[in-house]
């Protein structure tokens, strides 16, 4: 057991050391990468500054009167001296003027053995770009001197705007290489073909970052860009984690694009210092951890002695606590038995209360069709209508009473009702027909408006008629003692629901909210005129249909009740719960 604990401790220490090493290595490597990004940004800025330092000179020279006159045929000696002075003062390798056919007629090195005068450079891309009106830029080995340089050219035009020649300058960028080498950096600049143009390591110059295609080699040969160079691949293998192997050494590798030519500047940095610093940090952490472990062991021994002394006292207390716990367990069991009996009694009381509410609901729901039947019989008796006209209306009301007693769902589940497509217009018309005697007796002016097409919703027609009957009956009752008795009924559809709005000109909702009015046995009518179950039942039915019922005070006076039922989806529900 002691051997296993020691092995576990040694393994834990080893894992901790490895973890500290990799964490510190990651941190120090990120620092080295940040430094490398800073150096890369500096060198990129230097390259851009060197490339752009004389970019305006060819534009200015192309508009110089001496250059224009020489291009038109004036003697070249004056321009040769002028260009030579410019080259010396600006530190350029050469400045030279070519005719429209690419033949050089004047140059700053006209007096030197390797003069550009008389040379045809029409094959150079910078010349070909300049004669099209675009500033030409090109890097390559000089066809005359054999020395590399950066060429910039602009077209020279006559006062009439015709092309008379091309003025070009050549820059020596090898000072950049010397600066990189003096700083001990590993940097190279590659063009769009992947050929290294400038490098801190001379062995990397004119190497390629990958194999060149036949088309690339043919184009380079036609431009005489790198004459005499084999353009062999560079010994490097880039990776995707800002690392690369170059000449067999693993280095941090970062690259930045250089505008104008789609060149890339590649920077390599050695991160061996990060590894060394990581080992130092790991060693320091392990030494501190060992010292801390020794101190903790001493304190642990002291705590164990104190714990042994406390355990004897705690054991006595534990025995006493166990005795008290046994008594508490028995008391809890007794309380649970009493709670069970109380819950059973409460459940029986709840069932009795629900039964009483259901009885009141049935009484309320049957009250409306009974009142309608009484009104029909009274109207037939007063008006002397024949029995064959009254009997069908009474039979319809009786059918409705039977449906109410069978379908009433207040405080009960509706486990077997089938929801089908129902035209909401038929629902409203059936409810209005049932309340016609009440509307006529109250002398209410009915203002119904329905769309010409059907409003197909998903639901149970009899239950929806029950909702609309309750809402319309409440509106009619609200108009009984009003001077203006108008009942507006509007219907329509939204994106996914059909709706009915009932607006009356009665006394409104007052301070009551729809939530208050939906409570069973809550009503705003005087005693003896209803039990306040209508909206509670209606709200329950609308909820079963996944719809919504809302109410608000109308502008001016009266109340507006709105019922929304989801549109039918074309399929019938086999079982609606």
Automatic annotation (TrEMBL):
Keywords (A to Z) from UniProt: ATP-binding, Cell membrane, Coiled coil, Kinase, Membrane, Nucleotide-binding, Phosphoprotein, Transferase, Transmembrane, Transmembrane helix, Two-component regulatory system
Q: Name one GO molecular function term.
A: phosphorelay sensor kinase activity
Keyword DNA-binding listed: no
What the entry lists under SUPFAM superfamilies is as follows: ATPase domain of HSP90 chaperone/DNA topoisomerase II/histidine kinase, Homodimeric domain of signal transducing histidine kinase, Sensory domain-like
Q: Which residues form a coiled coil?
A: 325-352
Q: Which GO terms describe its cellular component?
A: plasma membrane
Q: Where in the cell is it found?
A: Cell membrane
Q: Which Gene3D superfamilies match?
A: 1.10.287.130, Histidine kinase-like ATPase, C-terminal domain, PAS domain
Could you tell me which residue ranges the Histidine kinase domain spans? 361-569
Q: How does it sit in the membrane?
A: Multi-pass membrane protein
Transmembrane region(s):
none
| InterPro entries named among the record's database cross-references | dCache_1 (IPR033479), HATPase_C_sf (IPR036890), HATPase_dom (IPR003594), His_kinase_dom (IPR005467), HisK_dim/P_dom (IPR003661), HisK_dim/P_sf (IPR036097), Sensor-like_sf (IPR029151), Sig_transdc_His_kin-like_C (IPR004358)
EC number, UniProt record: 2.7.13.3
Principal place of residence: membrane
Catalytic reaction list: ATP + protein L-histidine = ADP + protein N-phospho-L-histidine
- What Pfam families does the record tag this protein with? dCache_1, HATPase_c, HisKA
List, alphabetically, the PANTHER family matched. C4-DICARBOXYLATE TRANSPORT SENSOR PROTEIN DCTB, SENSOR HISTIDINE KINASE
The protein's name is histidine kinase
Task: Please report the organism this UniProt entry assigns to the protein.
Answer: Roseovarius marisflavi
């Amino acid at each position: 057991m002691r051997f296993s604990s020691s092995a576990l401790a040694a393994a834990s220490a080893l894992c901790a050391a490895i973890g500290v090493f990799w964490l510190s290595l990651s941190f120090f490597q990120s620092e080295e990468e940040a430094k490398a990004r800073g150096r890369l940004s500096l060198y990129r800025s230097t390259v851009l500054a060197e490339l752009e330092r004389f970019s305006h000179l060819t534009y200015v020279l192309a508009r110089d009167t001496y250059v224009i006159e020489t291009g038109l045929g004036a003697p070249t000696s004056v321009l040769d001296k002028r260009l030579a002075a410019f080259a010396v003062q600006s530190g350029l390798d050469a400045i030279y003027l070519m005719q429209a056919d690419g033949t050089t007629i004047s140059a700053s090195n006209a007096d030197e053995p390797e003069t550009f005068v008389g040379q045809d450079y029409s094959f150079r891309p910078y010349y070909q770009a300049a004669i099209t009106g675009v500033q030409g830029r090109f890097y390559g080995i000089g066809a005359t001197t054999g020395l590399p340089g950066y060429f910039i050219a602009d077209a020279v035009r006559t006062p009439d705007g015709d092309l008379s020649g091309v003025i070009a300058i050549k820059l020596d960028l090898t000072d950049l290489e010397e600066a990189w080498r003096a700083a001990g950096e590993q940097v190279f600049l590659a063009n769009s073909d992947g050929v290294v143009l400038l490098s801190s390591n001379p062995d990397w110059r004119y190497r390629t970052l990958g194999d060149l295609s036949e088309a690339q080699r043919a184009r380079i040969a036609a431009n005489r860009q790198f004459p005499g160079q084999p353009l062999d691949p560079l010994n490097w293998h880039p990776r995707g984690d800002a690392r690369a192997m170059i000449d067999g050494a693993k280095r941090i590798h970062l690259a930045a694009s250089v505008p104008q030519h789609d060149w890339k500047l590649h920077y390599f940095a050695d991160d061996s210092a990060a590894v060394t610093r990581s080992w130092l940090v790991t060693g320091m952490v392990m030494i501190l951890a060992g010292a801390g472990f020794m101190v903790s062991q001493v304190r642990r021994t002291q705590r164990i002695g104190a714990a042994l002394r406390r355990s004897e006292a705690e054991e006595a207390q534990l025995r006493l606590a166990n005795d008290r716990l046994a008594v508490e367990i028995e008391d809890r069991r007794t309380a649970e038995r009493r709670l069970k009996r109380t819950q059973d009694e409460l459940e029986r009381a709840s069932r009795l209360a629900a039964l009483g509410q259901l009885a009141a609901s049935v009484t309320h729901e049957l009250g409306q069709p009974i009142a309608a039947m009484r009104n029909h019989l009274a109207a037939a008796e007063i008006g002397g209508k024949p029995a064959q006209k009254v009997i069908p209306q009474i039979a319809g009301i009786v059918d409705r009473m039977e449906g109410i007693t069978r379908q009433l769902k207040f405080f009960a589940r509706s486990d077997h009702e089938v929801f089908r497509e129902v035209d909401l217009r038929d629902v409203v018309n059936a409810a209005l027909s049932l309340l016609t005697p009440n509307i006529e007796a109250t002398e209410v002016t009915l203002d119904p408006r329905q769309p010409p097409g059907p409003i197909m919703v998903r639901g149970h027609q009899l239950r929806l008629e029950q909702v609309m009957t309750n809402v319309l009956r409440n509106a009619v009752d609200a108009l009984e003692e009003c001077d203006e008795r108008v009942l507006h009924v509007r219907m329509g559809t939204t994106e996914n629901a059909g709706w009915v709005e009932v607006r009356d000109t009665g006394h409104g909702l007052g301070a009551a909210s729809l939530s208050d009015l939906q409570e069973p046995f809550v009503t705003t009518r005087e005693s003896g005129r209803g039990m306040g179950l209508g909206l509670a039942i209606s709200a329950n039915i609308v909820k079963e249909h996944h719809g919504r019922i809302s109410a608000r005070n109308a502008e001016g006076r009266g109340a507006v009740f709105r019922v929304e039922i989801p549109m039918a989806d074309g399929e019938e529900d086999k079982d609606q719960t």
